[in-house]
Amino acid sequence: MAQGEKVIVCDKLTKRFGDFIATNEITFEVNKGEIFGFLGANGAGKTTAMRMLCGLSTPSSGKASIAGFDVYTQTEQIKRNIGYMSQKFSLYENLTVKENIEFFGGIYGLTDQQIETKTEELLNRLGLKSEAKKLVGSLPLGWKQKLSFSVAILHEPKIVFLDEPTGGVDPVTRRQFWDLIYEAAERGITIFVTTHYMDEAEYCNRISIMVDGRIEVLDSPTNLKRSFGVSSMDEVFYQLARSAKRGD
Predict the structure, then answer these.
(1) Tens of pLDDT along 147-187?
(2) CA distance 12 to 51
(3) What is the CA radius of gyration of the chain?
(4) Helix axes 97-107, 112-126, angle to 10 degrees
């Protein structure tokens, strides 16, 4: 894919559960290598939308393509071209650091030689060489987080979906985690991230904020703060939440 190409395209994507509309005609595009923040209060429809984009849930209506593949008919191709990490991580705590890397390398279809090379590179980059034979369960939360993200992009996916990836860790570790995100984006990996930390929203190239299943605003952090006449994303979020309660 060429730089600047759209790797996520959504057009009126909708998910209904009976009479309840969880995700209501969301329309947006995400560029290759972009860090795209997908924000909203609990129950706004973020998780439902992400499940559709990852090929885990079939939309009720609308269109979407992920890395060039259709969310209705090409879900297996989508899964092969994305990475995923949640707040709960995806590592096996009863396996060692090295075993986890090797296991997921196999799941992602890498060859034995690729797994060996990438394992060595990853251990060196994260400074975990001396911890390679330690059980993941014994690592501090921040190290688990960095390792989980690095494993999620081990196969160099076109897009990585991060669902509240920094929950429960201290601010310094969160900032270090974002350094890893920037490095991945510079390599052309698109970052699609949900977070409830508004300071992290400032790190994104663009942000969408969902309210009651709809995308209420979508722009860069700088432009959003300017249009709302405020100095922080916290204040943008607060104003949107207040408007929603009033029914504006």
Answers:
(1) 999 999 999 999 999 998 888 888 888 888 999 999 999 99
(2) 16
(3) 18
(4) 140
User: What is the token pair recorded at 191?
Assistant: 């970052």
Give the pairing type, strands 6-17 and 20-31.
antiparallel
Average pLDDT over residues 227-239: 91
Q: What is the DSSP string of 82-150?
A: EEEEETT----TTSBHHHHHHHHHHHTT--HHHHHHHHHHHHHHHT-GGGTTSBGGGS-HHHHHHHHHH
Residue 61 tokens read as 């209506």
Distance CA 39, CA 119 (A): 33
The answer to whether the CB of 54 falls within 8 A of the CB of 161 is yes
Q: 6-91+159-246: CATH homologous superfamily?
A: P-loop containing nucleotide triphosphate hydrolases (3.40.50.300)
Q: Let me know how long the chain is.
A: 248
CA 46 from centre of chain: 11
Token digits for 13? 């994507």
H-type alpha helices, the chain: 46-53, 75-80, 97-107, 112-126, 141-152, 171-186, 198-201, 221-228, 233-246
